[in-house]
Amino acid sequence: MRSLIQTNAFIDGHWIPTDDRFPVTNPANGDTLADVANGDAALAERAVEAAHKALPLWRAKTAKQRADLLRRWYQSMMDNKQALGELMSAEQGKPIAEAIGEVEYGASFVDWFAGEAERNYGDILPVSSADKRSWIIKQPVGVCAAITPWNFPNAMITRKVAPALAAGCTIVVKPPQLTPLSALALAQLASEVGIPDGVINFVPTTHSREVGEVFTQHPRVRKFTFTGSTAVGKKLMEQCAGTMKKVSLELGGNAPFIVFDDADIDVAVKELIACKFRNAGQTCISANRVLVQESIHDAFIEKLESALNGIKVAPGDAEDVDYGPLIDADAISKVTELIEDATAAGAQIKTGGRVLSELGELFYSPTLVTKVKHTMRIAQEEIFGPVIAVQTFTDEAQGVQLANDTPFGLAGYFCAQDYARIQRVSEQLECGMLGINTGSISHAYNAFGGVKESGIGREGSRYGLAEYQETKNITLGGLA
């Protein structure tokens, strides 16, 4: 099987080395996988200029020409999914099978937006007067810049790059410092299938602030997209205001998972575990606040605790592993602090609650915490770890009120069987994405994004293409 490890910046179709390098390590054992080029502001500006130079020819290609190249890139990802998955597992920690699943998921956005490139429709407007006709066309916004997170180092890139390219834009990407190798592997495959030089550019770096300033303030960049924390997203949005860039932000979440008294408890337990322990709980749409109706609380906890005992934690290359290590020591500290705060305020650890030191410093046990109150930090902040924190509520109205009592609104989940309740609650919950009797809600066809302080804009679906387009209204006169 081929190696896809690249360690330099990728600009204008060339691998650009730098004297300054930074290590990428395996979170399962701390081993250094590679030393990667550490780009600076000057290199970021060089990437923007390369994207600007490549824009006219890429924009001029027909939709089918762009779609054909995207489909070649998609097929190359699928042909190399084992190598991409093993690389991702090594640098990020998730099980190889889960990593391969992410590669397939990430590739699906490339395939989807290849199709959307050819479904780029405008509108013919009603006749406003006898001598005029008006219509609307969609055009690429121009050079785009993206900053992506470490938890999904493949899919978070393809969800941004694929629609940008489908729309006729070029793009520069700052991949995450902790997991840049997956991004650079994608660049390698894109170059091999013939995506022109300068259309996609990658600048790995530890200098996030100065590279981010180039991306958000450079006048040639017309669209900026970011996935990460709400606090950072707000600062980046402020920086974009000076040049009035088009902006899309996928920010923090605090997803409720409500279990009503008419729910199928077995289904609720199964879907909660699938939702919560994907990527060791390090996902922005992970169930963060589990709200269980009082009348079924004990029965639910009993089945949930039993199910947690069957979860296997191990390095990502082990057999039949459910999840691997957390990404770094800061992640372990965050989880530990939240649990300590909760237990000091009266919460109870039913199972887990410890570092699995026999496996390594970054492995954390599947954990169940009960008697959680909505005022505790563990209910107010993203846990981003393998911890289920359970609160109770009395009736439907209180359940919905607790679910909405947060400044965030990315994802939400609930389990119920009564159709009238499903209809009511689905309309009342304040979130951009909602799963009912399921913990899996993300697909290339679906509109991914949040409301309130969880961001603006959508990724995936037909709405994802519009994030990289401008709408132009054209009126032709003198027809009478």
From TrEMBL:
<dbReference type="InterPro" id="IPR016163">
    <property type="entry name" value="Ald_DH_C"/>
</dbReference>
<feature type="domain" description="Aldehyde dehydrogenase">
    <location>
        <begin position="15"/>
        <end position="474"/>
    </location>
</feature>
<dbReference type="InterPro" id="IPR015590">
    <property type="entry name" value="Aldehyde_DH_dom"/>
</dbReference>
<dbReference type="Pfam" id="PF00171">
    <property type="entry name" value="Aldedh"/>
</dbReference>
<protein>
    <submittedName>
        <fullName>NAD-dependent succinate-semialdehyde dehydrogenase</fullName>
    </submittedName>
</protein>
<dbReference type="InterPro" id="IPR029510">
    <property type="entry name" value="Ald_DH_CS_GLU"/>
</dbReference>
<dbReference type="InterPro" id="IPR050740">
    <property type="entry name" value="Aldehyde_DH_Superfamily"/>
</dbReference>
<dbReference type="GO" id="GO:0004777">
    <property type="term" value="F:succinate-semialdehyde dehydrogenase (NAD+) activity"/>
</dbReference>
<comment type="similarity">
    <text>Belongs to the aldehyde dehydrogenase family.</text>
</comment>
<dbReference type="GO" id="GO:0009450">
    <property type="term" value="P:gamma-aminobutyric acid catabolic process"/>
</dbReference>
<keyword id="KW-0560">Oxidoreductase</keyword>
<feature type="active site">
    <location>
        <position position="250"/>
    </location>
</feature>
<dbReference type="InterPro" id="IPR016161">
    <property type="entry name" value="Ald_DH/histidinol_DH"/>
</dbReference>
<dbReference type="InterPro" id="IPR016162">
    <property type="entry name" value="Ald_DH_N"/>
</dbReference>
